[in-house]
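Supplementary Text 2. Reproducibility record for the structural model of the 383-residue chain.

All settings were left at their defaults, and a single model was retained for analysis rather than an ensemble. We include the record here because the model underlies the residue-level annotations in Supplementary Table 4.
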Amino acid sequence: MFGPQEMVIAQIYKKAGNISYADDERFRDKLQLDHQTGDLTISDIRIPISGDYQMKITGSKAKNKRFKVIVRVDTRKFTEGESVHLQTGVTEIQKDDLILWKFEPKNALIAKIDGQSNESNVYDDDDGFRDRLELDNRTGDLTITNTKSTDSGVYELQIKSRNKVLYKKFNVLVWLNNLKYTVGDSVTLQTGVTALNKDDRILWKFSDKDIFIAEINRATNQTKLYKGPDGRFRDRLQLNQRTGDLTIRNISRAHSDVYTLQITSGKKSTCKRFMVIAHEKTVSGVEGDSVTLNTDIEIQEDDLVLWMFGPEDCPIAKGETKEKISTYDYADGRFRGKLNLNYESGSLTITNTRTEHTGVYKLQVICSRETKYKTFRLTIRGK
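Retained model, structure tokens:
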């Protein structure tokens, strides 16, 4: 019996030798009772048959037994740009088999193999799967290349043979590659290419508006960097000429968004997306505590270490060498006698803190080759 209504779905009359099954669409052609043991086999299980089952034996050896069956969809998780391989479980298609691949929620047919006519087709003419579907003619396996987040959904496989129809579902989740950084960090987005070919073209775009920020064209031997419409990328971008990797220096919250990489090689084009999230490093303390803002930067000899505070970026500490360190009181004197700068690590310690020390602290480490940045948001709570 099945469900809360205890619907009879299969029964055996031992004396008469009769076996009968319920005429219910969920179980049609899927049930098989063992005449000797009474064991029930359900083939080609699907989500609607999840639920409570009860076995009841009447007669001299009366017996009840309950089972809970839970059917889950096979869930696969991928990162954008990866290839998804969905397997039929068939080693070789028979000549009378019909393989259908459908994509929900519209239940659209995306691939088909007809063993009888020996024909196979992929239906990728629309922008959704254009040139990204591959069908194995021997097994019926489906591969989706260069995946996008819009490929997320349920894929249904139907295998129709002479005597039965088998169903299988795959729940595919395609995620953006989320990268989290601290404000001031240098970020490198990698193409995954070891060396560009002579006819390759690399395009880097920013946000869903596809704002061009960098490109390499091997055919014309040109490299271009763009500052963006509002100048947010001015003097921050660097392209690796060998791999096409993009580096963003001194990243800020304004640089948090989706970055799209497009690689064109001959007639083939692939895309990859990255979600970059820049956040300020948060530090908290209680009034009266000493708080240290650690840089995690290795300071070299002759580096200039500069700490600033507040919306006006007012200097509060400067280190030129280990012996030449200066601290400043700030306009209202809130830092008087409270700052200690460690030149070797660049870390800043604020002693005997008060709530007025809450705010944004910015660090610059300036050397001959580059400038490194860090941003901290400090919160001091009252006792």
